[in-house]
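writing this on my phone so excuse typos. first protein, seq and then structure
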Amino acid sequence: MMAHRSILFWLLFLLPSLLLVTMVLSVNIGATGLHFDALWRGGDDADASMAWLVLTQIRAPRVVMASLTGAALGASGAIMQGLFRNPLADPGLIGISAGAGLAAACVIVLGSASGFSILSSVWAVPAAGVLGSFGATLTLYLFATREGITSITHILLAGVAFGTLAAALTGVLVFRANDTALRDLTFWTMGSFAGSTWPRIGILSPFLMAATAGVIWLAGPLNAMLLGEGDARLMGYPVERVKTVGMLTVACAVGPAVAFTGVIGFIGVVVPHLVRLITGPDHRLVLPGSVLLGAVLLTGADTLARTLASPADVPVGIVTAILGTPVFIWLLARTHDGVGV
């Protein structure tokens, strides 16, 4: 365990600096080189115009979207693991990602088959993803709540069942899809930041601001929830409100992000474990650490995704799975050896 001063240095200086360096490198790296010298000269130079266009309309929104999505997934994983007291919990476990994926698959397949403009517009898939994720969250919450008491166990089990059902229905849609829809659906389900734009970031921002307020409020109550719901009540925390705020925070953070970028795995599971190796279990440190480290890792993963097979894009979900699986197995091995995470 690191000393308290070293942990604060890691959280307040090292992680923000690492995020800044990663974002700058990610902006600079790509299929088309950025001529910063021409950009600095400005004027009507063609190289300067091209560099400005690539910087402001392609690279910068993509890097910002990757950072925000990584932060959302990292924080959501930490909240889920604290709320469910389950080290494997992440937003995909309770069907939030699966609900967004099923709704998006419906729009892609039906839009391609019918040719209706409203279904084939660029906003239809993200809108469906948002509605699907919030619909899944609301359904699970109502199912697991009786007489004002929400059962975490019922949410967990029902979420696993719902996720399996949504995956099966998505499989049926894939089976019925034509070639165009199948290509779009396959790429979306593996995640990509290729369609990132400033208007999309503008739509995502209010949801993330609401999620940030939830993260700040949850830090103390989640520490108490680690001791069990009974102990948390004795300590004066409103346990049922903590569950409600936790679910809404995860839905606000993950639903819109998944809707715009597709399903991206392993960030929500792995990042909180890596942060706890440094900070310990205190959620006042785990939550901001997960926000920053999630942003760093997903920004770096997206940089790899668009440079490994340049000029083509590798779906970022493939990169996070390749990088995240060995790390997750290493974390499991530490637990098996009694070191703990």
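second protein below, same order as before
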Amino acid sequence: MDRKIIFILLTLITMALPLSAAGQKDNISSPQTQPDQEEADNRSFSFTDSRGISRLYQEHPGTVISLGPNITETIFALERGNLLIGRTDFCDYPPEVKEITSIGSLMEPNMETIVNLNPDLVIASTHVSPEVLEKLESYGIPTVLVYGEESFQGMEDVISGCAILLDAELKGNEILADIRKRLKAVIESVEQNESPSRCYYALGFGAGGDWTAGGSTFIGELMTLAGGENIAFEQEGWSYSKEWLVEKQPEVIILNRGMKKEFLSLPIYKDLEASRNNRVFEIDENILVRQGPRQIEALEELASIMVSGLDQP
């Protein structure tokens, strides 16, 4: 299994871990305080992160380091990209993120770089270990963990949590309203499709084994919401088998962008009915697996594949 698939699987698995509700805010103020003190109190807020740790912040951060591609995308969507002074090697969207200093890998960020950047706040996501967070905090760097359940609600929790931390709640509410409107439109469109396409998501294939999104995964949920019938619906975990794939013969196969040519060149896969009928589609996997604002785009693309069935070149 290559490094890309390992990272995606690790991200998807950790997203399913039990968690505490994140994003609780409580403005702190007292009517007996002096004007200057009252102003300072009005800037104070408490926040409970996904570990269930609650902390009081005297004001919103002026500089932030993101330890997750989804967190970076969310920060930019909230129009707070100007606060970012650090991001990981995997943070590649939007394009302007390349101008921001990288602090290294997702799971083993460079502590020296982070300390030297001296951020007001580090926002971490699913794959960051408790040991990394504890080490950062031992250096006196405020750190929060923000992620949600593997569902649309989980994605909303990430957006609203970051919005609270970065004093961008109005923009956060605007983003969430747009997502809910687009979700409703997809559901209404799909309801008109009387015969769902039997589909399969090829997360991994070839010599490294076959990997897919079962019915309990968020990708599986998205495929169903998009009007598909996931042939791996009853599958637990992510591993699949070529024998099952051949037996169930999905009508539609979806895989990561740039992988179609290789898929169609390999024995067994090239002879599947979906392959012979030119029903193999590509999608940007990042918008599927990154828990953030672009996941609604993933749903819309999947719905377009399922409903229109337009062949890709």
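The longest strand covers residues 197-202. thats all i got for now
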